[in-house]
Amino acid sequence: MKLIGLALFSILVFSACDNQPKEKKPGQALVSINGQEVTTLQLNDEIRRAGVRAEQYEASSKQLLESLIARQLIVDEAIRSKLDRTPDVMQARERANAQIITQAYLQGIVSKITKPSEVEINEYYRKHPEYFAQRKQFDLTILRIATKDLSSELRAVIDTAKSTSEVAAWLDKKNVQYFRNLASRSTADLPLEMVTMMREKGKSHVFVINEQENSLLISVNEIKDSPITATDAALQIERYLTNHKYKQAIDAEIARLRLSAKIEYLNAKAPARNTEKPATQPIDDINYPETVGNLSLPEPVSEGAIERGIMGLK
């Protein structure tokens, strides 16, 4: 029933014009349902979105056409039941409409951006040896405990412990619940400050990372060289730099629009001028992920990110 409800809700959201007077849609009409046409343009769009291969076209087009008919039948019935006028659906329609228009506008901006050159890619590789030529892999043991159990007595044990095994023995003795697991992280996966401390203190130190309700107790089992060549990294660097250029262009456009707009904070507190930054919402079709394959290319870590991500790091 939850899935049916979710499907119906999605249908109502993305069929915002279906309760308007019927108009002739562009494209050859394939089927008419209660006077509402399904056209070749609609079917071709569904086929494109489904990524149908050429050899599957005939069978898939028939299935997708029947899906469009079923969708229209549900939309018609939902509208007759006035579900399209509920506050939740109307608000979701407005949000979806704004997202679609925003996507189209930003796509026009980023489409003008050129791909990173070979010089830019090589320069990024050269400037960040910690991610590539000098990349390290850290094999870790992690104990997860409830932060409320991080007592002063336990902190004293952690301060003198050489590994999480010693801490685990104390936790077992005191019947404190914890979860143990092994993990491997590279220098590209961790904040630079944490990488530096792990390399300096090595295997003889237990690090504490606070995650609000839980805390992680981490010890380093082994540090291994894990270099990546310029050739292997080129594609990932290109995608990362492309994403970075997209973000810069979008931020610059939002900043320009803010300068020319009249913005009044009525029942909300305005941000301080010196810290105000344009907030961009992720657009899946525009922004490439910053982690591609096994290579993660983080931005330089800000103080705020460090405070949020590794609060309580010892």
**Oligomer description:** single chain
Spatial extent as radius of gyration:
27 Å
User: What is the overall shape?
Assistant: extended
The description of the largest β-sheet is: 4 strands, antiparallel
Class from helix and strand fractions: alpha+beta
What is the number of helical segments per DSSP (H or I, 4+ residues)?
10
Number of strands: 8
Spell out the key features of this protein.
314 residues, alpha+beta, 4-stranded antiparallel beta sheet, 8 strands, disordered N terminus, disordered C terminus
Description:
A hairpin with a 2-residue loop joins strand 7 and strand 8. Helix 2 packs across helix 3 (57-80) and helix 5 packs across helix 9 (230-260). By secondary structure, this protein is of the alpha+beta class. The chain is extended, with a radius of gyration of 27 Å. The chain contains ten helices and eight strands. The chain starts with a helix and ends in a 5-residue tail after the last helix. Mean pLDDT is 81; it is low at 1-9, 16-21 and 275-314. The chain has helices spanning 2-13, 40-50, 57-80, 87-110, 118-127, 152-160, 164-173, 192-201, 230-260, 303-309, and strands spanning 29-33, 36-39, 136-146, 179-186, 206-211, 214-225, 291-292, 295-296. The strands form three sheets. A four-stranded antiparallel sheet has the order 4-3-6-5, with no helix packed on it. It has a two-stranded antiparallel ribbon with strand order 1-2.
